[in-house]
Amino acid sequence: MSTGPLPKQVNYRKLAQETGKLEGFIRLDQCERLAGSILETSGEVQVKLSFRKARKHRFLVVGKTDVSG
Asked: Which has the closest alpha carbon to 10: 23, 56, 58, 45?
């Protein structure tokens, strides 16, 4: 599992093969759509992602985010 800033790109196929997880943060000012809907754009979004294989050569990514000031 990774912690700290999330990478801009990941190999989701490899993570799904390993039933991998990523946990970290993204700066709010990097989340344009989210930042447009909130008053304060300083701070971070805590992100938890899990990857796994689904049926018929598909992959599933499940995520949870938390924005707290």
From this structure: 23
Residues of the chain with pLDDT under 50: none
How far apart CA 45 and CA 13 sit, in angstroms, is 24
Model-level pTM greater than 0.90? no
Distance from C-alpha of 2 to C-alpha of 24, rounded to nearest angstrom: 7
Quick one: 53 exposed, middle or buried, by C-beta within 10 A (0-12, 13-18, 19+)?
middle
Domain residue ranges in the chain: 12-67
CA-to-CA distance for 31 and 65, rounded, in angstroms?
12
- CA-based nearest residue to 20, from 33, 34, 7: 7
